[in-house]
Amino acid sequence: MKLSARNILKGTVTSIDKGAVAAEVQIDLGSGNQITSTITVGSVDRLALAVGQEVSVIIKASDVILGIE
Q1: DSSP secondary structure string, 10-68?
Q2: Residue 66's pLDDT is what?
Q3: Within a domain: 67
Q4: Pairwise CA distance, residues 61 & 49, whole Å
Q5: Which of left, alpha, beta for 48 (phi over 0: left; psi -120 to 50: alpha)?
Q6: Is the CB of residue 59 less than 8 Å from the CB of residue 65?
Q7: Do the domain assignments include residue 46?
Q8: Which residues of 42-62 are buried (b: 16+ CB within 10 A; e: fewer)?
Q9: Domain residues for 34?
Q10: Against a cut of 0.90, is the pTM above it?
Q11: What pLDDT score does 4 carry?
């Protein structure tokens, strides 16, 4: 698989919380870093995602927002 996205992180699925339409998938990136992806339940099923599975987190965004207190 070739992608134009340059932000590709490897991780392990730690939890999947399915709703009626969307699911939150928590991924452990290692070194205490985690990321959550919200995808459709159909995508979770199509990819056959499961806790403990290794995945690639691919980030392609036109905006990155930073905030401070």
Answers
A1: EEEEEEEEE-SSEEEEEEEEETTEEEEEEEEHHHHHHHT--TT-EEEEEE--S------
A2: 79
A3: no
A4: 23
A5: left
A6: no
A7: yes
A8: eebeeeebeeeeeeeeeeeee
A9: 21-51
A10: no
A11: 84
